[in-house]
Design brief:
This protein is of the alpha/beta class and 252 residues long. It has helices at 53-60, 83-93, 109-119, 124-137, 153-165, 183-200, 238-249; strands at 15-24, 27-37, 42-46, 68-73, 76-77, 94-97, 171-175, 203-207, 219-224, 227-233. A hairpin with a 2-residue loop joins β4 and β5 (76-77). The site of adenosine-5'-triphosphate has 11 residues, from β2 and α1. The site of adenosine-5'-triphosphate (ATP) has 11 residues, from β2 and α1.
């Protein structure tokens, strides 16, 4: 009997950008980006300063609009959405983690994590339960009553991650999430991302300068002068990973 081999990836891409351009005034920060990311994938985006990483993430996150081209995330064709529809997309579909934690100092850790649920009208009992679950996932349930300034930088970033995932978004976007952290704390943060990806099936797109942490991703795309120049599968063995990191170091 003859079995036709199913091509991989079989599923339709979760994120699809085709010839995406973004202008700031006359300046083209993105110059025809093409990228496909599968659901459940953990994708890193690397590239030199000013190459367009944050711009691309802002477009995928619906924080800004494409100037030209096709950009779809799940069922949402972002280039076609109105501002209200974009707001809804962000609220229902996404979690964001940034380099700075943006926690509210006068609120407790628990209240900070509950915030996105207040905006969604979730009742207080359920809010508390979900926020504690999110804190459990980042290993900070025991610090729920503290205030952000009583925590280390790594712990504050873990609170920011709990806040980003409290409504169980399908897509988590992270912009230099380890940018302010030492390498040991960065590794802890990356283990949390890997766990969210593995256990909750959350698709993650992470922009980073830090090549030490790309071993946690499935694939890494390199962007240069506003164009994705290459996408690599991240190797599973240390030796081949080191070879890839050395190759990428010459370009980032
Ligand atoms: N709001 C803006 N107005 C004008 N130009 C902008 C704006 N945002 C970004 N740019 C320009 O677009 C280009 C891409 O910026 P972007 O922030 O996407 O780069 P990046 O790869 O994330 O850089 P970095 O690693 O330094 O954060 C840069 O030349 C930047 O100066």
């Amino acid at each position: 009997m003859y079995f036709k081999e199913v091509p991989f990836p079989f599923v339709v891409s979760f994120i699809e950008a085709r010839d995406v351009w973004k202008y700031y005034g006359d300046y083209p920060a993105l110059r025809g980006v093409n990228i496909e990311i599968k659901e459940g994938e953990f994708r890193c985006i690397i590239g030199p300063s000013g190459s367009g990483k944050t711009t691309l993430l802002s477009l995928i996150g619906g924080l800004d609009r494409v100037s030209r081209g096709y950009l779809r995330v799940g069922p949402y064709e972002l280039h076609k959405l109105s501002n209200t529809e974009l707001d809804r997309y962000r609220n229902e579909f996404l979690g964001f983690v940034f380099q700075l934690y943006y926690l509210i100092p006068r609120m407790t850790v628990l209240e900070n994590v509950e915030l996105p649920l207040i905006a969604r009208g979730v009742d207080p009992g359920r809010r508390r339960k979900l926020a504690l679950e999110a804190l459990e996932m980042v290993g900070l349930r025991n610090k729920a009553r503290r205030r952000p300034n009583e925590l280390s930088g790594g712990e504050q970033q873990r609170v920011a991650i709990a806040r980003a995932i409290v409504s169980r978004p399908r897509l988590l976007l992270a912009d230099e999430p380890t940018g302010n952290l030492d390498s040991k704390t960065a590794a802890v943060i990356m283990d949390i991302f890997s766990k969210l990806n593995r256990e909750l099936g959350m698709t993650i797109v992470m922009v980073t300068h830090n090549l030490e942490i790309i071993g946690n991703c499935h694939r890494v795309s390199r962007i240069s002068d506003g164009v994705i120049t290459r996408t690599y599968d991240v190797p599973q063995t240390h030796e081949t990973l080191d070879t890839l990191i050395r190759e990428l170091m010459t370009t980032v």
